[in-house]
Description:
Strand content: 15-25%
CATH topology of the largest domain: Purple Acid Phosphatase, chain A, domain 2
Oligomer: single chain
CATH superfamily of the largest domain: Metallo-dependent phosphatases
Number of domains: 2
Largest sheet: 7 strands, mixed
Amino acid sequence: xxxxxxxxxxxxxxxxxxxxxxxxxxxxxxxxxxxxxxxxxxxxxxxxxxxxxxxxxxxxxxxxxxxxxxxxxxxxxxxxxxxxxxxxxxxxxxxxxxxxxxxxxxxxxxxxxxxxxxxxxxxxxxxxxxxxxxxxxxxxxxxxxxxxxxxxxxxxxxxxxxxxxxxxxxxxxxxxxxxxxxxxxxxxxxxxxxxxxxxxxxxxxxxxxxxxxxxxxxxxxxxxxxxxxxxxxxxxxxxxxxxxxxxxxxxxxxxxxxxxxxxxxxxxxxxxxxxxxxxxxxxxxxxxxxxxxxxxxxxxxxxxxxxxxxxxxxxxxxxxxxxxxxxxxxxxxxxxxxxxxxxxxxxxxxxxxxxxxxxxxxxxxxxxx
Length: 369
């Protein structure tokens, strides 16, 4: 009798341990599924109320479906509790692994330190990241192009505006051929005139080019920003290609998915640079055969955990496109974290990008001449 009682007690302990283990795996799977779907929904930024409701319902339904096998085991349906527990654990584990190692759609990550030549502080909590890349430039170009890249300024309050002014004031002695602004100027309309005038004070030799981000298309902001850009001689590239006089290169600006439904035709210039707010447009740039593209939007990942990395990422490609260099076929994309929210506070830091594009064949041609 004692042996039988001990056996029953041991079996109950095993069943309890199995149940607890399945519950823990389910919780991890539910969190992974929620973060994954939430990032993909944010990556599309559907703005109409009915579509927002549909997306929320899809996320809720998916999380509920994942829990069904566990609930069946909980109520011991048909005496198959072991089967349902195993199924729940396998599904949750598969979703967790997919979130940790998302499918990359042919996109590969390049070493994030590739081409990084230095970093210098501009203001408390903000750095200037210096990156160099080699490319074949048109004959009209100098041997190297120096570009300043600003993204995700989020000047919704004067704290960020003061940060931006301090950063640009520290860059007064630097000379740039072009400046690129990758969207999300701010959510406070009353500050936007000051933000745009501050950016216009850069005065690079070949102009300032701007693509709008998701926050720039909220409410009546698009028309306001368009008027301010025109008044301050800033060129908005809204799904168009622009040939830069004197350099022989084309700048391709994409404001998808928030504005427009079609990308421009393939650039005709020998070298082109793509500008976009969201890195999801790497697919479009690759189809257009744009060799070099720049993006922001991800802020380098809202959170970062050891061994796991960044999450959540507002991207339809899950959490893969966070920060640094990526490549798809012949297109290289650099994602900058931008100024971001609260730079220098809450452990956050912002970054401006000093990008130098060098053609090594120029120096060789000069030596031969």
